[in-house]
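User
Here is a favour to ask of a fellow structure person. I am asking you to supply a protein in sequence and structure-token form. Please set it down just below, with no commentary around it:

Assistant
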Amino acid sequence: MGIEAVPAKSAPPRRMPKVGFVATHGSAALPCVVRERTAAEARIEYAGAVAMPSRVTLVVADDGIELDCRVAWRHRHTYGLRIVTPTPAEAVAPAIARSCSARRKALFDAAR
């Protein structure tokens, strides 16, 4: 019997919080708070209950990124997302980027 290699851990999560938006096919982008993010995963929170499909796009406009994600787990208003494919910053929807600053204060106040 051989010893199996243990995969290396990814970089430690960056604690944010940052304003994000979750976009799904056929619906409007919903604002959320991105609590932690690594190269492979993200943890987000909503202010209330949200019905979310298994595949979503997470947009963090302040960082200029748009990430294709799958929902890995859910607990109340918190969701763990597995990042499938990162998208270049140029692909961030301009409307989401513009509305980010207007909603930032309300989301951060709600998260405290």
